[in-house]
Structure formats: structure tokens, C-alpha cells
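Changelog excerpt: complex records now keep ligands as SMILES alongside chain sequences, and the structure block spans every component. Example after the change:
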Amino acid sequence: MALFTPPISLALLTLFSSIFASLILKTEQCHPIDSSALLEFKNKITDDPSGILQTWNQSTDCCASWEGVQCNSIGRVVNVSRPGLFSDDIIINTYMAGTLSPSLGNLSFLRLLDLSDLKFLKGPIPHELGKLRHLNFLFLNQNQLTGSIPLSFRNLTSLKRLYIDSNRMSGVIDSTIVESWKSITELGMSENEFSGGIPSTIGKLAVLTTLDLHLNNISSSIPASIGNLKNLKNLDLSENRISGSIPTSFGGLSALEVMYLDHNRMTGSIPDSFTDLVSLQFCRLSENRLTGCLPRSIGKLKDLNRIVIENNHFTGEIPSSIGELTSLTDLYLSNNHFGGKIPASIANLRNLQTLEVSKNRLSGPLPPQLVKLKQLQSLDLSFNPLGLVSIPRWFSKLSLFRLLLAQTGIVGELPRWLSSSALSTLDLSSNGMTGKLPHWIGNMTNLSLLNLSNNGFHSSIPNEFRNLSLLMDLDLHSNKFSGNLGIIFLKRVNDPRGFYSSLDLSRNMFVGPIEEDIGNHYSMESIETLVLSHNSLGGSIPSSLGNLSRLTRLELMENGLVGEIPQELGEALELTSIVLSSNKLSGRIPDKVLSLKKLSAFNVSENDLSGEIPPHKAIFPASSFMNNKGLCGSPLPPCKHH
Ligand SMILES: *[C@@H]1O[C@H](CO)[C@@H](O)[C@H](O)[C@H]1NC(C)=O
Ligand SMILES: *[C@@H]1O[C@H](CO)[C@@H](O)[C@H](O)[C@H]1NC(C)=O
Ligand SMILES: *[C@@H]1O[C@H](CO)[C@@H](O)[C@H](O)[C@H]1NC(C)=O
Ligand SMILES: *[C@@H]1O[C@H](CO)[C@@H](O)[C@H](O)[C@H]1NC(C)=O
Ligand SMILES: *[C@@H]1O[C@H](CO)[C@@H](O)[C@H](O)[C@H]1NC(C)=O
Ligand SMILES: *[C@@H]1O[C@H](CO)[C@@H](O)[C@H](O)[C@H]1NC(C)=O
Ligand SMILES: *[C@@H]1O[C@H](CO)[C@@H](O)[C@H](O)[C@H]1NC(C)=O
Ligand SMILES: *[C@@H]1O[C@H](CO)[C@@H](O)[C@H](O)[C@H]1NC(C)=O
Ligand SMILES: *[C@@H]1O[C@H](CO)[C@@H](O)[C@H](O)[C@H]1NC(C)=O
Ligand SMILES: *[C@@H]1O[C@H](CO)[C@@H](O)[C@H](O)[C@H]1NC(C)=O
Ligand SMILES: *[C@@H]1O[C@H](CO)[C@@H](O)[C@H](O)[C@H]1NC(C)=O
């Protein structure tokens, strides 16, 4: 202050304010280097059907009237933002085709370049973009860009957020490029074809919060240096070919909230340091080859919401401290080698909605405390030696939507309390259940999947079955069900839900002809799988099956079916598999059926078919046609023409 006498200070103030006024009120016109760089970019755009660049024209000022272009006070372009999906009031989904012009590298003041979601930008990222020393934000995601990240990107030292996900980029991730992105906080490179390992220089990106490399072709093991990323919150390395074990250094990721390492080839056990990930909320390690036990101290991770570690080789008992994870909503442990009992402490998980522990070696008895899980919606205990004997009565107090108890040692009849449950999925398959399919099954109107296969049920299908108007998948195979199938096809439909998707009624004692109108029933409109094999069905194959436009798999083997194969079957264009063996079918094989475009499996062996096997593109072995006295022609021996 003392340096300036009042008059000088006043003069300076006047001077400054006039400069500021000219800067703020009268911004400079667009710099010619910038406007020609942008026009050159527009020049390389071959299709712009929704006019994303319509306002960019030579006779107007790029700073004043070009949409998506923002300049600084000296007329230099700092922001270019023309994403394909943008939302002010309405969401406009648009596209733009063409390549990225190298001229963009001349926008030397650029801080933000957003050309994301334009869907049809092709070709490589020009190395000239490496000249943009001030660039903070680069968004080129959701396009069809190819090639690798240009080496010149080493010079993008101001980069804070880079998203190039969902393109077709390839090549290894260069360690020197990564190292130079000292200011980067978010790095999104997912859904490309990047290969090679994760460079260990990644550990130098001290301010990184998000690293997303999912769905690439990344291999090798995760570098130990990753543990240096003290600010990392989101890590997604899923769906790659990453091998090796989870580095011990992972414990250093104290800010990590989301950790997705699923669908890789990782081995080894979860390091003890795992329980230092005190911020972890979402943990996915599923579909790997991980071994060893869950850390005993897992209860320390108080923020954990979801644990998804199914399909690995984990062993040991489920640690009792898991009951301390009071934020837990979902626990997926299926298909591992967990043994011992389900710890009673799980009953403390008041927020638990999903408990899936199928395909392990868990033994009984089930802790009855689990009745306290009031939020539980989905329970899968299938394929464990639980020796349940009956479905525990206290299950009726849970408000489950999904209950799967396949091969858990249940015997006896379906308990009546099921009739008042709101279940949408019920799987009691592969048990020793007996008795009838009761009339009250018609009260279970929320059922969308019912699997009673591999049991000893013996009854006909009660009329009330028609009330299951949301049922889509029904599997009753390998029981002793008898009577007519008709009721099943007459099922009501609660449009748009409740159309059958799959029906497996095989290996039962169903009788009678297959209903002539089977393919015209409302319930059958979108069925994909229909398996009626190994029953005592007689009559002929209904031609209405040809009306099932989504049918991919039709299996009718080992019934007493007579008559010809209806040529209308050739109208079910989605058919990939037709199995009609071991019946009494006669006549010729219709051309139209054997030439179905998607047909890859066909079997009519053990019938009374005759005539020449029609020409077909797919390769079927001779065993598909064997033991039909009158059939001839490739792949069987040639026909004897008179
Ligand atoms: C540029 O835009 C102005 C105003 O929108 C328009 O009048 C003019 O015809 C355009 N020029 C070209 C070359 O498209
Ligand atoms: C450029 O975009 C950034 C990030 O969206 C924004 O913060 C900045 O205000 C914009 N600059 C101008 C001059 O509009
Ligand atoms: C960049 O600007 C320079 C100088 O204005 C010009 O000569 C050059 O052609 C421009 N480069 C591109 C790729 O447009
Ligand atoms: C990075 O910038 C420097 C100086 O501008 C230049 O000499 C060098 O070639 C650039 N590096 C790459 C890889 O483009
Ligand atoms: C993935 O990388 C391996 C080599 O590591 C290569 O053999 C394979 O072709 C790549 N796959 C794809 C889809 O790029
Ligand atoms: C079906 O489920 C809904 C909730 O999705 C529930 O309100 C309804 O009571 C259930 N119906 C039956 C018959 O359980
Ligand atoms: C029913 O359960 C058996 C195993 O017990 C399984 O193989 C089959 O796929 C299941 N069916 C459906 C429709 O889920
Ligand atoms: C089946 O539904 C009808 C009406 O759709 C109803 O009158 C009948 O009580 C239901 N039967 C059972 C067993 O739920
Ligand atoms: C089935 O529903 C009917 C009508 O809603 C009801 O009268 C009957 O008691 C129910 N049966 C059982 C076993 O819950
Ligand atoms: C197939 O469906 C059409 C239209 O609903 C119907 O006219 C025709 O009779 C059906 N075909 C057979 C063989 O049932
Ligand atoms: C066709 O069915 C017969 C009888 O079940 C079987 O022996 C044969 O292997 C089957 N062939 C093919 C190709 O599926």
C-alpha cells in the first residue's frame, strides 16, 4: 500500500478496469487458427443427420455463435462439446459419422473436448491431439475409434479425466504414457481391445480416483504398485484375462469403495491385508480361480454392501464375523467349496436381501435364527448336503420372492403354507418329494418359475394350475406325473408377462395325444423350449407347432407318436434342435423341415420313416437317421433308384 500514492493507484485502477471491461464485455473474435481447425474438423465429418455441427460456418464467429464452442477472453477456443447424447430439457440421442481431423491439435488453448456417444466416429485418434498441453477433459467414448493411444499423449500432462471406453481401440497400454498423466483422476478405457499387462507406472498416479479397464484383453498379473493409489475409489478390471493373485499391497487402497475383479483368471487366496480396505462397499471376485479361506477378520469391513465371489475354489467355513457386516444386502457365495455350517451370525444381517450359497459343501442343520432376516428376498441353498428332510416351517415367516432348495435332502409332500407365499421362483428339484401337485398350487399366482423336476410326484395336473398366470418356466421332468397335458397349455396369461418360455415335462407318465391346437394357445406364443420326451403320448405331431415363431428346441423322443412329420414345422424358423427319435413316425422327412436355416441338431432315429433324406446344409451324422427301414441317401447309403 505504502508504495503507491493515491493518484497513481487511481490511475492504475482506471486502467485495469478499462482492460477488464474490454475483456468481459467485448470478448475478442474467434482466432482464425481455431476457427479453421474446427472447420477442418467439420470437413472430415461425413454424416451429421441431426445437424450437430449445423451452426459451425465460415461466415459466423466461432466464439459467438457456434453451438458447443466456448472461448476465453482472447478469442481462443477452450471448450468443444458436441456429445451425441445430450440433455437439456429433452434427451436427444443422435449420431455423427466421420474421422477425427488432425487439425484439432491446433486448438492450443483447448481444455475440454467432448465428442462422446456419437457412435460412428471411426479411425485412429490423431497423434496431433498430443499437442493439446492444456487439455483437462477428453471424452471420446462410445464411438468406433481404432488404433492405439498415440505416444504423443505423453505430453497431455494436464489431463484430469480421460474416457475412451466403448470403442475398438487396441494395443498395449504404454507405461511411459500412463506415467506422464500426473493429474489424472478418472481413467475410463473399458470395452475396447486393449491387451498386455497393466503397467506398474499406474502406481504413480497419485490423484487417481477411478480406473475402469473392464472388458478388454488385458493379461498378466495386477502390479503391486497399484496399492499406492491412496485416492482410488473405483476399480473395475473385470472381464479380462488377468492372472496371478490379488497383490498384498491391495490393503493400501484405503479409499476403495468399488472393487470389480470378476471374470478373470486370478489364482491364489485373498490376502489378509484385504481387511484393510475399510471403505469397501461393493466387492466382486466371481468367475476366477481363487482359493483359500475368507479372512476371519472380514467383519472389519463395515461398509460392505455386496459380496459377489461365486464360481471360485474357496474353501473353509464361512467366517462367523460375516455377521458384523450390518450394511450387507447381497451375499453370493455359490459354486465354491465352502464347508461347515451356515453361521447363525448371518441372522444379524438385518439388511440382507440375497443369500446365495448353492453348490458348496455346507451341512445342516440350518440355524433357525435366520427367521430374523426380514429383508431377505432371495434364498438359494441348492446342492448342499444340508439334509433338510422338510422345508423348515419358519420359512413361511420370511417374505421370499425366490426360494431354491434343489438337492438339499427334502422328502415328503409340498407343504401347504406355500399356498400363501408370494414366491415368484420355486425350485425344489432333485429331492425325494412325493405326493400330488395340490389344488392349492393355483393360489401361488406370483410364480414365474416352478421347478419340481427329479422327484417322485405322482398326480395329474389340477385344473387350478390354469391360475398361474405369471408362470413362464415350468420344469416337471423325471417324476411320475400322469394324465393329460391339456391344462398346462390352457394356462392363463397376465399379458405382457406369463407367456411360457420353457416347458420340460419329459420322463413322466403323461398320456393321450398332444393337443392339435398346442401351437395356437395364447400361453405358448413365445415359447422357446418344449421338451415332452419319454412319456406315453400317442397320436400325431400337431402341425400347429409350426406357428411357434420363437421355438428353438423341440424334443418329443420316446413317445408313441404316429403319422408323418408335419411340413408346417418348417415354418418355426428359430428351430435349432428337433429330436423325434424312438417313435412310430412314418412317411418322408419334409424338405422344409430339414432345410430350416438355424437347424444344427436333428434326430429321427428309431422310427418308420422312408424315402430319400432331403438335401440339407447342416451336417447331421448317420446316427440321426439310423434304424428307419425305408430311409436312404446321404448321410445314409444312397437310394436304389429303379
Ligand atoms: C452461415 O450461417 C448464416 C446464419 O445462420 C447463414 O445465413 C449463411 O447462409 C450460412 N453460410 C453458409 C456458408 O452456410
Ligand atoms: C469449459 O468447460 C469446463 C468444464 O465443463 C467449465 O468448467 C468451464 O467453465 C468451461 N469454460 C468456458 C469458457 O465456458
Ligand atoms: C495448424 O495450423 C497451422 C498454422 O495455422 C497450419 O499451417 C496447419 O495446416 C494446421 N494444421 C492442421 C492439421 O490443420
Ligand atoms: C512432446 O512435446 C515436446 C515439446 O513440445 C516435443 O518435442 C515432443 O516430440 C512431444 N512428444 C511426443 C511423444 O509427441
Ligand atoms: C488377446 O490377446 C492375446 C494375446 O495376449 C491374443 O492372442 C488374442 O488374439 C487377443 N484377443 C483379442 C480378441 O484381441
Ligand atoms: C404377489 O406379489 C406382490 C408383490 O410383488 C404381492 O403384493 C402380492 O400379494 C403377491 N400375491 C400373492 C398371491 O402372493
Ligand atoms: C431345474 O433343476 C434342475 C436341477 O435340479 C436343473 O438342471 C434344471 O435346469 C432346472 N430347470 C429350470 C427351468 O430351472
Ligand atoms: C383361480 O382363479 C379364479 C378366478 O380367476 C378364482 O375364482 C379361483 O378361486 C382361483 N382358484 C384358486 C385355487 O386360487
Ligand atoms: C386359495 O385361495 C382361495 C381363494 O382365494 C382361498 O379360499 C383358499 O383358502 C386358498 N387355499 C389355500 C390352501 O390357501
Ligand atoms: C397358425 O396360425 C394361423 C393364424 O393364427 C392360423 O390361421 C392357422 O390355422 C394356424 N396353423 C395351424 C396349423 O394351426
Ligand atoms: C439320435 O438318437 C439315438 C437314439 O436316442 C442315439 O443313439 C443317437 O446317438 C442320436 N444321434 C444324434 C446325432 O444325436
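Residues 1-13, 17-25 have pLDDT under 50 and may be disordered. The pocket of 2-acetamido-2-deoxy-beta-D-glucopyranose (ligand 10) is lined by residues 519-520, 543-544, 547, 568 (CB under 6 Å).
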